Amino acid sequence: LEFPKQQISFSDNFRVEDFNSLISPLVEKTLESCHQVLKQAELSTAQIDEVVMVGGSTVIPKVRKMIEKFFGLSPHVSIDPYKVVAIGAGIQGHLLAGGRRDFLLLDVIPLALGIETLGGTFSKIITGNTTIPVEERETFTTNVDDQTSIDVNIYQGERELIKDCRALGQFKLRGIPPMKGGFPLVEVTFRVDANGILTVSAIEKRSEKKAEIEVIPFHGLTQFEIEKIMEDSFEHAIDDFNERQLIEFRLTAERVFQGIEQNWNVAEASLSEKECEEIRKQMDIVRQNIKGKDSQALKIQLDALGELTRPLADTAMGSYILTELKGESEAC
After folding, report:
1. What confidence tens digit (pLDDT) does each residue in 44-99 have?
2. Is 202 helix (H, G, I), strand (E, B) or coil?
3. CA R_g for the chain
4. Strand 198-204 relative to strand 209-215: parallel, antiparallel, unpaired?
5. Cα 27 to Cα 35: distance, rounded to the nearest angstrom
6. Which residues face 121 on adjacent strands?
7. Is 166 within 8 Å of 122 (Cβ atoms)?
8. Any residues with CB less than 8 A from the CB of 174 and at least 6 apart, and which?
9. Domain segments of the chain: what residues?
10. Dihedral pair phi/psi, residue 84, rounded to 5°
């Protein structure tokens, strides 16, 4: 073996057993990738009709034997493993140029694409392993009153929080008329064309204000980096889910507190002093749980607060409806 740039020269005899031992960890990693692919496709090895070997390493006898053992069938080795990737790329280029259509090659988005939402969470709009071209949309809203612009931050990844994902770009949707929080309807559309170019647009549907940006989502990412991102998502799945739940429950608690304070005069007029005192005590308990790290404990206390404030919610809704009806009758 000669490595001129590193000024390294190696010459020795290897036993097959020693070589197989050295490559074993890499082969096991390959089999783990096969397992993950089957899991994502919701297939078992028994449902696979044929395994096509691609790449120079697939000529190694140990690799072929372990693949055969994993899938329970002999791999297809008649195609030249050194040329098959180039042939596939040539066919894809031919199709994109408008050539023959009796081939079907499906390119996929390896990692999910989405935007940052309240609390630093990652909302996936296009999921990983989706074939392209593809277009998906989702509607969001604001959380505060009189918000006249929205920052749309675009990310890719498989984790639950944007701090663990890769930033792709951002743009600002401006000119939204002042409205109460929750009233604007912002439709965000993600579109990936056959060349892998991502276009993200956002439109506020009440005012028709619109903005968009174009990015190349996987520029600069190697296959190894994509696989590492996937592995990290599996490894941290439970912790990520719990952390996201904690953030969402905290935000819910803040909205509940805001609703209670806005309607406290209704509570004092319609509920007993004991009922009001119980609501205040439970609010303090929820505040203490917000400071903790246990999402399920916070949810339990939030549910308890919801039960205590149910009569208040019913009364407040009734008062709102009566006010609206009175306004309509006066207008008539």
Report:
1. 999 999 998 888 888 899 999 999 999 999 888 888 888 887 887 888 788 777 77
2. strand
3. 28
4. antiparallel
5. 13
6. 117, 161
7. no
8. 148, 149, 209, 211
9. 1-105, 108-219, 237-331
10. -60, -35
Distance CA 194, CA 133 (A): 5
Supply the pLDDT for residue 325: 38
Mean pLDDT of all residues in 296-311: 88
- Over residues 260-271, the pLDDT tens digits come to 888 888 778 888
For domain 108-219, the CATH architecture is: Sandwich (2.60)
Alpha carbons 101 and 46: distance in angstroms, whole number: 31
CA distance 23 to 29: 10
Contact predicate 109/215, CB 8 Å: no
H or E stretch at 68: helix 61-71
Tell me the per-residue pLDDT of 143-183, one tens digit each, with 9 for 90 and over. 888 888 888 999 999 999 999 999 988 888 888 888 888 88
**1-105 adopts what CATH topology?**
Nucleotidyltransferase; domain 5 (3.30.420)
Please give the structure tokens belonging to residue 298.
């916070």
- Angle of helix 273-290 relative to helix 295-331, nearest 10 degrees, comes to 130
Q: How far apart are CA 82 and CA 98, in angstroms?
A: 26
- 318 pLDDT exceeds 70? no
Phi-psi region of 43 (alpha: psi -120 to 50; beta: other; left: phi over 0): beta
Q: How much of the chain exceeds pLDDT 90, in percent?
A: 23
With a cut of 80, say whether residue 306 has pLDDT above it.
yes
Domain 237-331 has CATH 3.30.2350.10: no
Q: What is the DSSP letter of 81?
A: T
121/263: higher pLDDT: 121
Burial 85-98 (b: 16+ CB within 10 A, else e): eeeeeeeeeeeeee
Cα separation of 157 and 36, whole Å? 16
pLDDT at 307 over 90: no
Inter-residue contact 77 to 68 (CB < 8 Å): no
E strands in the chain = 2-3, 8-9, 107-109, 112-117, 121-126, 130-132, 134-140, 150-157, 166-173, 186-192, 198-204, 209-215
What is the distance of C-alpha 303 from the center of its chain? 27
The pTM of the full predicted model, rounded to 2 decimals, is 0.65
